[in-house]
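Hey,
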Amino acid sequence: MKILKKIAFLTLATISTLPGMGQDLLARQAPIDRKMKAVDSVALQRLIYTENYDSPAEDLYEDWSNKYAHHETTLPDSFRISLKEFCMPTDSRLVTSNFGARWGRQHKGLDIKVYIGDTIRAAFSGKVRVVRYEGRGYGKYVVIRHYNGLETIYGHMSKQLVTEDQEVRAGDPIGLGGNTGRSTGSHLHFETRLCGVALNPALMFDFRNQDVVDDYYMFHKSSYQRESAVANRLRGVGGGSISAENNEDVELATAAPAASYSQESRFHKVKKGETLYSIAKRRGTTVDAIMKLNHLKKNVKLRAGQILKYN
C-alpha cells in the first residue's frame, strides 16, 4: 500500500512539472523559429532575384516605363518563348475577331467574347507595367511584362484589379470583362508582344481548346507573319479546317519547338558603352564564341539596342 502511494505521489509530481517544461521548450524554440523564418525569407528573395535576373525580358527591354502601352524596338532574328506555367486569360472559347487586317487597319490582337464582370487573369507570371484608361482605344487596360520575354495587353475591361509595378503570378485576377474604350460590345482584346511588336496570340494560344499550342513557341523574324496567317486559319474565327495545299504551312506552324531545337538560345541586348569583352564576361562565354554565333568581324562597333546571341 505504501509503495502504491509513493508511485501515485511521484506520478502527480511529474505531471505537475510538465506545463513548466513545455513552456521552457517553447521559449527555447521561439528564437530558432524566428531564425528559420529569416533564412526562408532570404532564400526566397534570392530565388526571386535569380529568377528575374535570368529572365529573357531583362535582355530584350532597355527600360521600364508606365507611360506607354507599347514601344517597338529591334526584334531578335529568333527567340524561344516558354509557354509553360501559363493560364488562359479567360475561360471563354469564342474568338470573335482575328489578328491582322480589319476594316482597313491592322488589328493587333485577338478579340474574345466575354461578358461584363467576367474575370480576366494574367496569362503568365510577371510584373504589371501599365494600368490606364484610353477612351479612343483600349479603354481600361493592363499591360504585363512577363519573365518569358512577352508582354501581354488586356483591353476594354470594366475594372482593373491590379496596380502598376505589382508582381503577379499566372492565373491571378487582373481585371473584369467590359466594353470600355473603342468597343462595340463586351469582349476582351488580348495582345501578345515581343519587343513591342505585336505577335498573333493564335501562334501560342488556342482559346477553343483552352490551352497553349506547345511548351515553347520558337519565334523567327523571317517567318512569323506567314505562321500568323496559318494560325488564324487553325485557331481563329471559324478555324479548325485548312486546305490540302497549305499542309507545308501547317507543319511549320504546329511543329514542336522542343523537338526542333535541342538547346535554348539566349540573347543579350547591347547597352550603351558595352563591348564584346564585357558582354562575354557577363554571360560566361568568349568573344570568339559571340562573334561566331552572330557572324561578326573582330573590329565590329556595337550599337545600343543590338541583339546578340551568346549561346
